[in-house]
């Protein structure tokens, strides 16, 4: 396995600055954000460290040289929109850009693209399943032909009334993963697995590793701290009773997590994803979040 981090934390840096920082800090890889150039619509979105729309052969060679020079690889290309947004134009734009990210991954000889399946939060899962198949079928076929695997992150994308009650991502639970993999029986589509999203759903993330580990194409290391007093006040159907934290400061049992993960034979990337507001105030505190995460997680790597 390789320990890395997600580049969304530093939107102001170039890719080369990320590779250099990762090398100095001890990280072996980075997941590189590839949003379309433009305004962000939410925290950590709209970040572009590789512009796949203008990716030239010269830029590809430059990126590859930088990776060799620093000894830091690219674990995957990341783009996390809502491809099943109720607005047809938003859907079409997201699907088109996912295709471009897959093309870029193939050109850069990177085997993984990470994203969301998407969801219309106002509709039940079964009611939009066929629409999901119609949209994702051609994308999965395209990725397969380009020998790129797709890692679907399991975040529900449920943060406020705007996403209530279903969230903006279908692929959030074991029952849905089974249905998804039955719908796409090939090995192109898998998971970008993040245990923190299962903690607040009260889903056994260790059991998930045992059942679905062979479909893990990428892993995010993010923690979550549950607030029992808030649950007491609003119940599990309320909002804002869990807090994203850096690894080691929440409720994920990382020793058992890596024990189960290594048992599956997983050899891919584990990338720290920082969404901990405590570390957002300054550039230095953001750097510190990655230094601290590295020091904590490095104990689990050979």
What features would you describe in this structure?
- This protein is an alpha/beta fold.
- Helices cover 38% and strands 16% of the residues.
- Strands 1-2-3-4-5-6-7-10 form an 8-stranded parallel β-barrel, surrounded by 5 helices.
- Helix 2 links the parallel strand 2 and strand 3 (73-78).
- The longest helix has 20 residues, at 88-107.
- The protein is globular.
- The termini are close together.
- The model has no long low-confidence stretch (mean pLDDT 95).
Helix content: 25-40%
Question: What percent strand?
Answer: 15-25%
Determine the N-to-C terminus distance.
8 Å
Query: Helix count?
Result: 10
Name the helix and strand elements from N-terminus to C-terminus, one letter apiece: EHEHEHEHEHEHHEEHEHEH
Query: How many strands, which pairing sense, and closed or not: the largest β-sheet?
Result: 8 strands, parallel, barrel
Q: What does the overall shape look like?
A: globular
Please give the structural blueprint.
Blueprint (H helix, E strand, L loop, with lengths): L1 E5 L8 H11 L3 E5 L23 H14 L2 E6 L9 H20 L4 E4 L13 H17 L3 E5 L20 H10 L5 E5 L2 H4 L5 H8 L3 E6 L1 E4 L1 H7 L7 E4 L8 H10 L5 E4 L10 H15 L5
Helix pairs in contact: 1-2, 3-4, 7-9
Question: Concise description?
Answer:
With 302 residues, this protein is an alpha/beta fold. 38% of the residues lie in helices and 16% in strands.
């Amino acid at each position: 396995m390789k320990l890395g981090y997600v580049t969304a934390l530093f939107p102001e840096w170039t890719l080369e600055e990320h590779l250099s920082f990762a090398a100095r800090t001890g990280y072996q890889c980075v997941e590189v954000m590839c949003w379309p150039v433009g305004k962000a619509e939410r925290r950590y979105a709209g970040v572009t460290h590789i512009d796949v729309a203008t990716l030239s052969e010269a830029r590809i060679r430059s990126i590859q040289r930088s990776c060799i020079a620093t000894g830091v690889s690219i674990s995957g290309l990341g783009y996390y929109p809502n491809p099943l947004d109720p607005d047809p134009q938003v859907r079409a734009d997201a699907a088109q850009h996912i295709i471009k990210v897959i093309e870029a991954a193939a050109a850069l000889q990177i085997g993984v693209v990470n994203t969301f399946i998407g969801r219309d939060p106002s509709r039940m899962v079964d009611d939009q399943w066929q629409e999901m198949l119609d949209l994702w079928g051609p994308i999965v076929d395209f990725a397969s032909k380009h020998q790129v695997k797709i890692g679907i992150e399991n975040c529900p994308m449920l943060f406020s009334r705007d996403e209530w009650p279903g969230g903006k991502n279908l692929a959030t639970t074991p029952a849905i993963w089974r249905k998804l993999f039955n719908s796409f029986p090939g090995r192109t589509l898998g998971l970008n697995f993040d245990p923190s999203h299962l903690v607040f759903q009260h889903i056994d993330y260790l059991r998930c590793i045992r059942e679905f580990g062979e479909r893990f194409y990428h892993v995010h290391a993010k923690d979550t701290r549950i607030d029992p007093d808030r649950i007491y006040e609003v119940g599990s159907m309320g909002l804002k009773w869990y807090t994203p934290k850096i690894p080691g400061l929440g409720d994920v049992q990382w020793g058992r997590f890596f024990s189960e993960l290594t048992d599956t034979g997983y050899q891919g990337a584990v990338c720290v994803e920082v969404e901990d507001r405590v570390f957002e105030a300054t550039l230095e505190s953001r750097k510190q979040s990655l230094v601290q995460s590295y020091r904590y997680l490095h104990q689990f790597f050979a």
